[in-house]
């Protein structure tokens, strides 16, 4: 029987899983339409396990970008994970190394937010099992919906032009995430650079936009923080 804290983590993740389903379906469909085989698409989802970075990589692969550009773009988009790791690491100090490595693989925005809120509450929760409940549920739903998307995408004719779904998903994520001035500036600067850079060689527009957005957001956040002091 699964520990109570594991089940509590799964329950905490349930509301987020509903929004994850269409996202995973789009990722699977987009991967197939980008020219990846079903095996490659499923493997990409299992190895990368990072929604926004995964879709960005798929978009670049569809445009025949170099592997170096694809990898660097995905890394830049996922730089926030370094901050999440630094924040949550003290709560994992007692874990054995293999558990810590497994937990790092499962780290996402949602699993971090739900877990850190529970851990700072000092409620006596078994952190390992709670985290695995939250993050494991997210991982399972993402993989299953991606596989479903791959199977659906393999049967959808190219004439349907479902490629529009990728930018539509990004737009949905953007609207929900722009909650303060630094994020708004990051979105505007990053988006503008990516559009201007659409004709750059090696498909560097997306990478340039990601880097410019990160830098702009950090600069504005630093200025706002300084003005509050």
Automatic annotation (TrEMBL):
Q: Write down a Pfam family by its short name.
A: AzlC
Q: Which keywords does the record carry?
A: Cell membrane, Membrane, Transmembrane, Transmembrane helix, Transport
Query: InterPro entries, from UniProt?
Result: Brnchd-chn_aa_trnsp_permease
Report the GO terms under cellular component: plasma membrane
Q: What biological-process GO terms show up in the record?
A: L-valine transmembrane transport
Topological category with respect to the lipid bilayer: Multi-pass membrane protein
Q: Where in the cell is it found?
A: Cell membrane
User: Any transmembrane segments, and where?
Assistant: 12-32, 38-58, 65-87, 129-154, 160-177
Membership in a protein family: Belongs to the AzlC family.
Query: PANTHER family per the record?
Result: INNER MEMBRANE PROTEIN YGAZ (PTHR34979)
Name it: Branched-chain amino acid ABC transporter permease
